[in-house]
């Protein structure tokens, strides 16, 4: 197989990668510092003077990190011993060894964007865990919570819609069921517009009822493989398999996670699946990504709502978890900088787990970058080729475009988009359902 193309990187001045490292990353660090500041009295109340000292330490570590980034210093190894520290440091060494010839060292604006961006979030985590007793503080929790509360109206609309649908689901014919499936897939796609790292942690929520906008948003779906997903799951259902397992590799908490839960609930209620396995992050990640705490917090919030249908959803979802129909997993691989084509070597247990699924849905932009290695692929090379050997089970990326990377387009499609909207790759305005697997 030909060598894959070069990685996206901050070396390309003016590129989205470059601008993310130059502008968005320092803003995210500043916001994290500010959040710690604002919680000072809370730390004091909880831990006394030790809490205040810890807050100072975490802030000084984050300020140092911001300075390293802004002055393009070498990427240094992690120091605090954790389950993933050796793997991280080995990966950094590996990158160092690739550069031996040229006398370079891995640096913020020089190394692959995927590596340095993941590294920044891993260093934020290191700063916090090096600062006990506040070492389990999530600097992004507030933004995630805010994005959920600001989307309340949409959440209520979706929960009400779902409850009505589930009540009459037995009466739907094949075609109606398929239409509902497509609707909820699109809700989950557009839910991905609401991530917080693109807006540098500023509010990003869903204020309008997205159900009413689906028709208008259709032209913005650049690759639409929803039919394949329907064929796959409806054939599984017809073959009366004892278990149909769908894996959802989660992205953002808040509104997007609600849309994923709505889809998951529908998959079970329609018997298109009978087990949903969710994969989340084990540490705070890319501002808004879902951790187990966010997962449980959200179900709790939905349950405690005083809106009848919203709270019914929360009760059902909590029950799905209790009964093992919904299973949450985390694995350190999701917060390593590796592209997914090396998962079978780096995390064979996770790869084997994913192989058990009949379908894997990968939510969001970062998952797409890792699926395709975050490389400068041509716009029309096949998705299968960009996956570079990563085929644990039939899979589909559900993502709005927020990075200068897209494969599998029709010849001429990218050129047309570029002419009509030069920002098409990075604003989250366009989306895809891109499938790879047997047809
Ligand atoms: O994975 P998500 O939540 O859809 O997006 C993550 C993201 O905002 O982070 C990076 C910018 O910092 C971009 O790759 C991408 O747009
Ligand atoms: Mn995200």
Automatic annotation (TrEMBL):
It catalyses: beta-D-fructose 1-phosphate + H2O = D-fructose + phosphate; beta-D-fructose 6-phosphate = dihydroxyacetone + D-glyceraldehyde 3-phosphate; L-glutamyl-[protein] + S-adenosyl-L-methionine = [protein]-L-glutamate 5-O-methyl ester + S-adenosyl-L-homocysteine. GO terms for cellular component: nucleus. One of its GO terms (molecular function) is fructose-1-phosphatase activity. Its EC number is 2.1.1.-, 3.1.3.-. Pfam families: ARMT1-like_dom. InterPro entries: ARMT-1-like_metal-bd_sf, ARMT1, ARMT1-like_metal-bd. GO terms for biological process: DNA damage response; methylation. Signal peptide: none annotated. PANTHER family: DAMAGE-CONTROL PHOSPHATASE ARMT1 (PTHR12260). This is Sugar phosphate phosphatase. It comes from Otolemur garnettii.
């Amino acid at each position: 197989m030909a060598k894959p193309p070069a990685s996206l990187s901050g070396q390309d001045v003016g590129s989205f990668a470059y601008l993310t490292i130059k502008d968005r990353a320092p803003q995210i660090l500043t916001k994290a510092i500010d959040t710690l500041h604002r919680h000072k009295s809370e730390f004091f109340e909880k831990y006394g003077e030790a809490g205040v000292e810890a807050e100072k330490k975490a802030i000084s570590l984050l300020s140092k990190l911001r300075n390293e980034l802004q002055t393009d210093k070498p990427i240094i190894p992690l120091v605090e011993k954790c389950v993933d520290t050796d793997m991280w440091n080995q990966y950094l060494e590996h990158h160092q060894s690739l550069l031996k010839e040229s006398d370079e060292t891995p640096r913020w604006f020089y190394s692959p964007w995927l590596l340095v961006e993941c590294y920044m979030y891993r260093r934020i985590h290191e700063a916090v865990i090096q600062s006990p007793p506040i070492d389990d503080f999530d600097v992004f929790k507030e933004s995630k919570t805010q994005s959920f509360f600001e989307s309340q109206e949409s959440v209520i609309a979706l929960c009400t819609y779902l409850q009505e649908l589930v009540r009459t689901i037995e009466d739907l014919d094949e075609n109606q069921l398929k239409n509902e499936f497509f609707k909820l897939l699109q809700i989950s796609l557009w839910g991905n517009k609401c991530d917080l790292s693109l807006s540098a942690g500023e509010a990003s929520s869903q204020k309008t009822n997205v159900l009413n906008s689906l028709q208008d948003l259709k032209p913005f779906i650049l690759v639409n493989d929803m039919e394949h997903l329907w064929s796959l799951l409806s054939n599984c259902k017809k073959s009366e398999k004892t278990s149909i397992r769908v894996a959802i590799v989660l992205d953002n908490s808040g509104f997007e996670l609600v849309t994923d839960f709505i889809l998951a609930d529908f998959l079970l209620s329609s018997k298109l699946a009978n087990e949903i396995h969710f994969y989340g992050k084990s540490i705070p990640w890319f501002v808004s990504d879902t951790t187990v705490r966010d997962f449980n917090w959200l179900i709790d919030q939905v349950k405690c709502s005083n809106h009848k249908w919203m709270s019914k959803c929360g009760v059902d979802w909590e029950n799905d978890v209790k009964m093992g129909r919904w299973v949450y997993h985390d694995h350190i691989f999701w917060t390593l900088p590796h592209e997914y084509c090396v998962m079978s070597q780096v995390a064979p247990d996770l790869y084997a787990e994913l192989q058990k699924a009949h379908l894997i849905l990968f939510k969001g932009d970062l998952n797409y970058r890792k699926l395709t290695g975050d490389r400068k692929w041509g716009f029309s090379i096949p998705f299968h080729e960009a996956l570079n050997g990563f085929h644990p089970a039939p899979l589909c990326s559900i993502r709005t475009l927020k990075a200068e990377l897209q494969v599998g387009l029709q010849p001429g499609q990218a050129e047309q988009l570029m002419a009509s909207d030069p920002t098409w790759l990075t604003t989250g305005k366009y989306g895809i359902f891109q499938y790879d697997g047997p047809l």
